Fold each of these.
Amino acid sequence: MRRGAWPIAPTKSFAGLVFVLLAMWYAAASQNNAAAYVLLFALGAVFCVSIPHTLLNLGNLRANAESAKPVFAEQEVSLPIEVTNRSRRGRYAIRVELPHHKGARERIEQIPPGKSARVMLRFAAPQRGEHTIEHVSLSSAYPLGFLRSRQKVSSPQQYLIYPKPAGDPALPSDRRGQQDIQPRSEIGGGDDFAGVRDYIPGESQRHIDWKAVARGQPLMTKQFARETAGELYLDFANMNGLEFEARLSQLALWVIEAERARRPYGLRLPGREFPPALGEAHFHRCLRALALHK
Amino acid sequence: MKTVTPRDMRIPRKPLLWMAAALLFTLPSMFGSLALWVPLLFLTTLAAKFWMEPRDYRLRSNILVLVLSAAALAAIVMSYGSIQGIEPGVSLIVTLMGLKILEAHTAREFQVMVMVAFIVCLCGFFLSQDLAIALCLLVSFGLLVVALVQFHGGISRARPAIRIAATLLAQAAPLVVLLFLLFPRIVTGFRIQLGQSRYSAAGFSDHLAPGDVALLANSSEVAFRAEFPDGAAPPPGSMYWRGVMMWQAQGFDWKASASPVALPRNRQPAAAGDGIRQWITIEPHGGRWVFALDWPGEAPPGTGLAPGNYLWSGQPIRKPRRYEVRSYPEIREKKLHPREQRMYMDPGIAVSPEIRNLVSSWHPPGATGRDVISAALLYFRNEGFRYSLSPGEYRKNDIDEFLFRRRLGFCEHYAAAFATLMRVAGIPSRVVSGYLGGEYNEIGRFYVVRQSDAHAWCEVWLPELGWQRVDPTAVVAPDRVNLGLNAFLERRANDGQTVASGTFVRGFVRSPVFTKMRLAWQTLNYAWDTRVLSFDADAQESLFANIGMPDQSMLIWLGAALVASVLFVGIYLGWSQWRSRPPGDQVLALYHEFCERLGKLGVTRESTEGPQAFARRASGRLPNEAEQIAQISTDYVTLRYSSEPSVLTLDRFAELVRGFAK
């Protein structure tokens, strides 16, 4: 049987308990000390009656994985999980884990009867693509910590990982020549400050308005006047000398940089094409296509 | 950049507080039995930990820990002279526990600390088995459970943690009783015995030296408790509890045989008269004497009847022990062997002419042994002898000083002097030490005999009657014998002879409420000693025999104990599952009730009919109830099939259903 398949399993401190019980028994028996026997039996009995408490602490719990925001590969996925207590008793010290993601672990201190609690499980994003979570694992060592009961709750949920942005940050020149602009040697190279906009996850942090962050405001990127120009097509086919995954990474980086520079961009993948546009919906559409590209 | 410590790396403060409280409750067992510095050091480490913890100080250096451990070991060896035995061992555990507390920092170490704290609790029981201390240790155990619950249950507030721990303890209680009765007690096969505790408390001894009994008289410790199951208790004034017979005389110094050999059964003197049955629970004293009323008839199991008719245990008594014994008002021992005669007539000291003159003045020609005894007692009564707990110091050859000059003494002086006089007069005599009287506890219906009831008296041999008890103290201070020592001293205090303590305290001590409390506490103590502490392998065997179980092998009982525990857990599991069942079941039950009520009104639900369809049909048939039917059906569907948790509206639903078509 696999580990974790048992409904209840001893924890590390169980070994300590066994040692203490044996020591108590040996001392009580060799000294024939009835009071020591009382203590031995008290500890043993408290342990015994704690078993159903440990088991029942997971009864009538439901876990529901909610949708996670897409992130880039090698970043951290934040998966919100709602745990609902459908019983009429409080539930204590519930550990929520994802079976196949190490480190994706949070503890809920208490869920009153009929209420639910929400935790955010964070784990490193695997490679790009669409991933599925089949189960959420609930476990609890309540109340004494010698045993841990486990339960796998089916809660199918999908999350998307965009390709890791990497490569040359310089945008390619507009190959169709629809607009007469100079190719950029440096991104964001303009001098004139033209306001701020929301930070797009994955883009360079060079232009984040750190002063605003220090004032407690959300992440904003400073925009400069010359960033708003030109329209370009990012084409999977026109990238010589790069591996398949490296191309996708490069394209992802360009999508970010183009969006940041407010330059309308189009994306051409084998079999799919997105006409030039700007904006968050377009941005995510493009990245999604890159993530799912086979 | 500041590194973020994961939250669960630090020991949470509250469980640590609970554990500290638990450890405080283990201290009473240490004071008085361990070297004083051990509990004091422990207390200091606890305080230091709470000073260090918020400041993030800790004992980080392993070398320092090693050095401190070595220092603790050295200090223990210096205090006790060795590392063997219970006290040094417990001292070592307690000191190392203190170091561990100073060092512990992470949550993982907390678990180790709780485990060690359980061991400290256990050590407490080896230091003392007194009820008050046992209660402290059990409180400590409970607090440790609270600490564990708070630590693992992630409960930040104290009250729910206490509630959960109390639930666990209450549920465990019946299992503890079951295990206590059924769990097999293995008594043999232990090669390594833990060192034996030393009994340093003032206690009885097999040798009478001037001042010994007087020392005991100041101790209110319980020596033993006695019950008379047949209800026939002699009056306290004649409750002579026989301890040890002493025959080797040397003035005031009398000794018993060092290791008496039990008399073979055919040489035991025959007992006469109706026996008085007693159940005696003796407190551990580390010696081998066992008490019974004068004269014990036959020896209880594990003891023998030594020459001189006193009980002698085969093993030193190191834990409370309960035994049944039958005593007889007289024994028929009509023969004194010439060797014994010599043994009982040796005065052991050079007899002074003054004593010889005195004795010969009681011995006119034709006087019988009885006449001599009466004359001697008369001498004690009429010549200004007084009874005192502090007669000043006598050396062992100071019988003359006592008889002719100071004339002030305690029971041991009278017994020793009288027995010596009898030997000089040619009457075989011996000294018996034991206890006299006892305090009756009305609640528990037993007698408490304390160390302060210690007494010594004489026995003389009269050829026609055998050994006869003579208590010279009774002549000098009759009230001591009839009232018991404490009452006797109290009466004297009223006469202004001894120093009075505060009147308020004395008033409280004499008040009926206090007396009741004291008696109840004594009864509890007695129950603890008789029911718990003296329950051993023998008691278990006789329990099994009493409930009709034949003698079974250990394994079967181990199995029975395990099965019982598993059954207990299983039953509880089922019950608890039922208690915490989801509200859905109740909703369904309420809906069935609703359908039943509709059925009485003439609309029966088909087995295939859904709730909504049924509601429509029922409303058509019962237009007056239509609104209620619709409401209940909608609520039912919401409660049962909606994914939202819906405990809160269950009560309203129940109300609606119960209010429907009443």
Amino acid sequence: MTPEPFDPKSELAFVRAVLARQEAAIAKFEQRIRCVPRMLSALNGRRGRPLSEHDLADLVQDTVLIVLRKLDQFAAWAPLEAWIYRLCLLEFLNAIRRRGRERRRTIERVDEPATAPAASAGGHEHDDVHQALDRLGGVEAEAIRMKHFDALTFEEIGNRLGMPGNTAKTRYYRGLAKLAKVLQTYQSRQEHA
Amino acid sequence: MATHDPRHEQLMEALLTGEHLRPAAEIAACPICSELLRELQAATASLESAGAEQRSVLTQASELRGVAGEDRVAELVRQGLAEINPPRRGRWRWHCSWLVLAAALLLAVLLGPWRREPAPDRLLNSSGYRPTARNVDDLADRGFQWPGSPGETFVLYLYDPTDNLEPWDSVECSNNKWIPSATYVQGMRAHRADWNWVVGTVRATAAGGLPTIERSDTFEFWFSP
């Protein structure tokens, strides 16, 4: 995705240049944001293709616009593509949930037994983790993402977050404790559903 | 069965961050900690698995070409940028008729000299202490100073102003001062763009001690408009 080593300052400067509508930056951005259709296509393939090509093209359009609208919130804690991946995943999950609801409504209307395929209606084992991290937010969620998603050491996490490695460890641990609680809430909700 | 001790927290942190490879005997014997450890290990396993999936999707995506919607991306970017950030001259031409200008002048006359209202300076704290920086942008320059005894440490808990039950972050500060890095301030703003302020609650503790609340106070930190 990004051949050069990740440098938060230059990544942030790049995004600012895009928002300032500098032509060279926009041209490069157009290439990099091609990761949106590719990521969505890869996610769709892994979940058993719940979305058709047409739905996927619509989702690409919506997600690109969401990325652009949120671009000023990009904090360069991770490469742009990793940040875009989160948005793609959340939009993809919303899309399959919407599709699942639509299918259930159609099935109810034609009075057929509710047998919508799990891939199109149900969740995935990692969905809760991403949603819980999104809910947790802040530095703690970033530290967790950097540790488990980007496979960084605590020293590297500290460097990215502008804090000593030991503080990064504490943030990570506190975040993990909160995340475990949120995940348990999700799990008990699913068990009661 | 051993009883729970707040010091177990440090052992748990060391274990979960890879400093210790095996749980200490105290943790294994403590019913509260062994239960918590199971929960944290389950969360870690889920994170590892989600992380592996993310890396794999990113790798797969980097190899894909010619997928649905890819051909329209450049056009969408141009359209999207025009929507979210129209060029100033274009906006001006669109909006600025002499009628709009006249209406704005009339409003200015009616409302008096127009100025952006500064953030309300409500004093949330009970001690009456006004910190050196309350504006988030000034925090990185001047830091947040807490009046306490030399060597005292404090923990600053940052809350969502709309739901201040659980802090979304906490910062440990020694010598009564916290100077966040510019990256941290940027992150505060980026992550909570929908808020224009956050609530900070300071809890002073004995140096190096566990969070025994000796003194506490609450402050607001404002984002520049």
